[in-house]
Amino acid sequence: MQKVLEDANVKLGNVLTDVSGVSGQLMLDALLKGEAKPEEIAQFARKRAKKKIPEIIVALEGHQMSEHHRKMIRYSPDAESTYPGTLGSDWGGGASRV
After folding, report:
1. pTM score, two decimals?
2. Per-residue pLDDT for 54 more than 90?
3. How many whole angstroms separate alpha carbon 74 and alpha carbon 90?
4. Share above pLDDT 90 across residues of the chain, in percent, rounded to a whole number
5. Which residues contact 62 (CB under 8 A, 6 or more apart)?
6. What pLDDT does 88 receive?
7. Cα–Cα distance between 27 and 42 in angstroms, integer?
8. How far apart are CA 53 and CA 47, in angstroms?
């Protein structure tokens, strides 16, 4: 999943200690749903990550998360461990195959 995020120019791993933590999951979920504004996505920061909101915004600026990237993340084994039951699903309900 990290390689797909890097390919999409999403640099959350450079800012967050654990991208699979609560803040990272919420931000990733927003990206996968197509919420594209870094300022909005950064507001999902929780606890210690709240202090890093300016850095999170910079890490998300210029991201190029495409539908292809979203599908790659949805179908990755990492997504299954982070979001059980999502492997092979269309992130938000309904089954969809690539």
Report:
1. 0.72
2. yes
3. 7
4. 11
5. 9
6. 45
7. 7
8. 11
